[in-house]
């Protein structure tokens, strides 16, 4: 028997169990809830319409999309610094209307007992995760992921939030889904812990870029110098790697915070249309030497999407005029010399041998 139709305002609770295989029901619930609200105009500032799209000519294949409404209709960004505490007097996601809530997840895992503060309505070993619409969407199903929303944490990644993000990505069968995070000082808009979930239909350069292993840090690599952005990358090839990757990411984020370095993260599968044995997950961390305290309504930002190869713009002139050279220059100016600033911590293996080993490992998947 089919489920009764729900209104766009109905919120469904769903338990994500410990098994990390694809969960088609989770994806169906997410997409149905998002589409009903979008089609009915419930909660959204505009109806998503990508006017034009092109791949910029060059070796990195930047994906450029024109979305003029995102430029003019989005929520006004807040102004706050890297270490700013949560401020209950400012807008936060506990204040949103119930119509903006897509799903209330309870991610169920014994490993959470070691790292999660219990949220209301959960038991030991469960993490509450709210999925909200992004009311100024960039892509279909663009949503906000809020681990333990009611705990009112500032926009600083926790071990629990990192694990919840990776579990969500592993559970969605469609590998075009990606996750991203902007820290304070790296173009975050709201100082309430959240990540972005988007579906991007094309490959981006970071999915297949060569990687150089970092000595002394299991599963950690860095991007080669010639790429548009500087960043460190954890590679998750197997479910057994999940604790190592989560803990490593958490330590890396803590190191960046200690050094007052803002940062962006991007979570992606390496292969979007292949079987589960042919793809790995990459989590790329982009530190920033130059903080950006707030983002204005400009056409081209340098946040997690742009650093990873997807450039949404709001001005037709930018859509027509941006080149690979101009995009790369803007990203490098925004980020600064990350490798130089962190050279005392991260020592790489032999670059040529390391790169060959990573490529070979990815091809075996």
TrEMBL record:
Keyword Repeat found: no
Keyword terms of this UniProt record: Cytoplasm, Guanine-nucleotide releasing factor, Hydrolase, Nucleotide-binding, Nucleotidyltransferase, Transferase
UniProt-recorded Gene Ontology molecular function terms: GDP-D-glucose phosphorylase activity; guanyl-nucleotide exchange factor activity; hydrolase activity; nucleotide binding
GO biological process, one term: glucose metabolic process
Cellular component, GO, one term: cytoplasm
Domain GDPGP1-like N-terminal: 26-197
Entry EC no(s): 2.7.7.78
Kinase among keywords: no
Catalysed reactions listed for this entry: GDP-alpha-D-glucose + phosphate = alpha-D-glucose 1-phosphate + GDP + H(+)
UniProt-listed SUPFAM superfamilies: HIT-like
The GDPGP1-like C-terminal domain, residue ranges: 228-334
One Pfam family in the UniProt entry: GDPGP1_N
Enzyme class: transferase
Localisation per UniProt entry: Cytoplasm
Task performed by this protein: Specific and highly efficient GDP-D-glucose phosphorylase regulating the levels of GDP-D-glucose in cells.
Family: Belongs to the GDPGP1 family.
The protein's name: GDP-D-glucose phosphorylase 1
Organism: Anopheles atroparvus
Lineage: Eukaryota, Metazoa, Ecdysozoa, Arthropoda, Hexapoda
């Amino acid at each position: 028997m089919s489920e009764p139709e729900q209104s766009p305002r109905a919120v469904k609770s769903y338990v994500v169990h410990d098994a990390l295989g694809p969960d088609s029901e989770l994806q169906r619930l997410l997409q149905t809830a998002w589409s009903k609200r979008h089609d009915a105009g419930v909660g959204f500032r505009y109806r998503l319409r990508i006017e034009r799209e092109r791949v910029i000519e060059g070796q990195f294949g930047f994906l450029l999309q024109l979305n003029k409404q995102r430029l003019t209709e989005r929520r006004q960004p807040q102004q706050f610094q890297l270490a700013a505490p949560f401020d209950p007097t400012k807008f936060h996601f506990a204040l949103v209307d119930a119509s903006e809530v897509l799903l209330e997840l309870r991610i169920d895992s014994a490993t959470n007992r070691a790292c999660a503060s219990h949220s209301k309505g959960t038991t030991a070993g469960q993490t509450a995760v709210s999925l909200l619409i992004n009311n100024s969407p960039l892509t279909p199903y663009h949503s906000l992921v809020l681990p333990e929303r009611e705990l009112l944490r500032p926009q600083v990644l926790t071990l629990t939030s990192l694990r919840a993000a990776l579990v969500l990505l592993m559970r969605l069968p469609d590998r075009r889904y990606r996750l991203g995070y902007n820290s304070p000082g790296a173009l975050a808009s709201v100082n309430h812990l959240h990540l972005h979930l988007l579906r991007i239909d094309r490959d981006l350069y970071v999915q297949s870029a060569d990687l150089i292993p970092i000595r002394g840090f299991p599963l950690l690599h860095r991007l080669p110098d010639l790429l548009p952005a500087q960043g460190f990358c954890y590679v998750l090839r197997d479910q057994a790697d999940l604790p190592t990757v989560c803990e490593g990411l958490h330590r890396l984020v803590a190191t960046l915070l200690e050094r007052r370095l803002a940062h962006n993260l991007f979570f992606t599968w390496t292969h979007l249309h292949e079987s589960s044995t042919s793809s790995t997950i990459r989590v790329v961390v982009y530190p920033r030497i130059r903080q950006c305290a707030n983002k204005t309504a400009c056409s081209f930002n340098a946040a997690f999407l742009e650093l990873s190869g997807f450039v949404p713009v709001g001005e037709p002139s930018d859509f027509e005029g941006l080149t690979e050279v101009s995009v790369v220059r803007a990203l490098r100016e925004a980020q600064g010399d990350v490798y130089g600033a962190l050279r005392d911590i991260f020592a790489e293996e032999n670059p040529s041998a390391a790169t060959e080993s990573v490529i070979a490992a990815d091809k075996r998947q």
